[in-house]
Amino acid sequence: MLLDKELKIKNVTLQNRIVMPPMATEKSDQGIVTQDQIDYYVKRAQNTGLVIVEHAYISPEGKCSKNQLSICDDNCIGGLKKLSDAIHATGSVCLTQLAHAGARAKHTGLAAISPSGIKLDEENPVEMTSGDIERIRESFLKAAIRSKEAGFDGVEVHSAHIYLLNQFYSPITNKRTDKYTGATIEGRTKLQCEIIRAIRQEIGEEFIIAIRLGAYDYEEEGSQIEDIPLACQKFVEAGADIIDISGGLHMYNSPESDEPGYFKKLSIAAKSGVNVPVILTGGIKTSSEAEKLLEENAADLIGVGRAMIKNPDWSTEAIQ
Ligand SMILES: Cc1cc2nc3c(=O)[nH]c(=O)nc-3n(C[C@H](O)[C@H](O)[C@H](O)COP(=O)(O)O)c2cc1C
To answer: 22: which of 97, 231, 243, 300 fits an S-S bond (Cβ 3.0–4.6 Å)?
Structure first.
């Protein structure tokens, strides 16, 4: 069995290859972790190698749902510390997911911002100035520092599901012509790399940095599978320790398939470019499906989302 094999990343060891991917619970109270939320995670963390806590907004205008978790100021550190302590007590390793919704922000009362002001949902976003980009980079860094203070093993930078950083990655939403241009992979990955580099420099070598990449838009004008190896190389050169593969414009679904591991073409492309562990999530319901994907070397770690929401004992049952 490969699913129960340990994996060492930096100075932490994941007890097995199972990942609880980030999934919004809407259980926070004005952005602060609640006891209900802690209980929810503790149940699912048992025998789970890595828990990536749901998306947390890094600045007020980047929020996208009413009861979303916050990491945008120091008030949230106490609750997050209780959460990381509770997850660690199960033997699991945990990351926060740092997010900014960009054009998809809601419930903020503030103007939405995005790389090129392209409308996606109901908001009319404003094109980001270079000052906005600098401020956002700083907000991601400060949120990572709060994660460290709250006892997490690291962070995941959210650049998927057509949220802000994915809006930079996708040529459909990035029409910029400056150094963050949507015309080159370098431009499309520049802000993510700057954020990763800033976190690495400030927090040090041992802090785990993952990046969730909305790797493919499934549209002619969008991001392509061929872009994945080079984009991932850039993230790893900047200091990323884990690549977490998901979708772009179609979010966490594939319009082509709902088979277990429906993003495996994308994770295989990521693995062809880098040597760091790659997470594959999407459509995996059983441990034998997860095992098969590991045997095929489609990924190093397997995310189990909706099946774990439904069955909190998924990991315990999988490794028995
Ligand atoms: C209720 C729900 C909330 C989610 N919230 C997030 C999130 O906060 N951040 C994220 O990157 N993905 C989020 N996702 C996507 C999941 O992490 C995962 O990629 C997706 O559910 C596909 O995996 P599955 O088929 O195993 O469920 C969410 C999915 C669901 C169903």
So the answer is: 97
State the distance from the centre of ligand 1 to the C-alpha of 177, rounded, in angstroms: 32
Residue with tokens 């709902």: 258
Could you tell me how far CA 136 lies from the centroid of its own chain? 17
Q: Give the span between the Cα atoms of 172 and 199, in whole angstroms.
A: 28
Closest Cα to atom 18 of ligand 1: 305
Nearest to 64 by CA among 101, 89, 91: 101
CATH number given to 7-319: 3.20.20.70
CB of 22 closer than 6 A to ligand 1? yes
129 pLDDT band, cuts 50/70/90, is very high
Q: Are 59 and 140 in contact (CB under 8 A)?
A: no
Q: Which residues of 63-89 are buried (b: 16+ CB within 10 A; e: fewer)?
A: bbeeebbbbbeeebbebbbbbbebbbe
- For residue 65, the SS3 value is coil
Mutation probe of ligand 1 site: the residue of 18, 20, 23, 64 with most atoms within 8 A of C-beta:
23
Please indicate whether residue 21, judged by its CB atom, sits closer than 6 Å to ligand 1: yes
> 89 — phi, psi (to 5°)?
-60, -20
Residue the block writes with tokens 């980079």 = 137
Q: What sign for the dihedral angle of Cα 182, 188, 194, 199?
A: positive
Confidence category of residue 122, pLDDT binned at 50, 70, 90: confident
CA angle 64, 169, 67 (to 5 degrees): 10
d(CA 191, CA 198) in angstroms, rounded, equals: 10
The pLDDT, as a whole number, for residue 237 is: 98
Give the DSSP H/E element, type plus range, for residue 244. strand 242-246
Q: Establish whether 163 is a catalytic residue.
A: yes
